[in-house]
Write a structure and sequence with these properties.
47 residues, mainly alpha
Length: 47
C-alpha cells in the first residue's frame, strides 16, 4: 500500500513538472520534453 502511494506521488510530481515544462517551453516537441523530464527523474537521488 505504501508503494502504491509512493508511485501515485511520483506520478503526480511527474505530471505537474511535465505541465510546467510544456507551459514554459511550448516550442519544444513533446517527445524531447518527456525525455528530458524522465532524465531529470532518473538522475535525482531516490527518496
Amino acid at each position: 500500500m505504501a508503494d502504491l502511494f509512493r508511485v501515485v506521488t511520483i506520478c503526480n510530481r511527474f505530471l505537474s513538472k511535465l505541465r510546467r515544462t510544456i507551459k514554459f517551453r511550448p516550442q519544444y516537441d513533446l517527445e524531447t520534453t518527456i525525455r528530458e523530464v524522465i532524465e531529470s527523474f532518473r538522475t535525482r537521488p531516490n527518496r
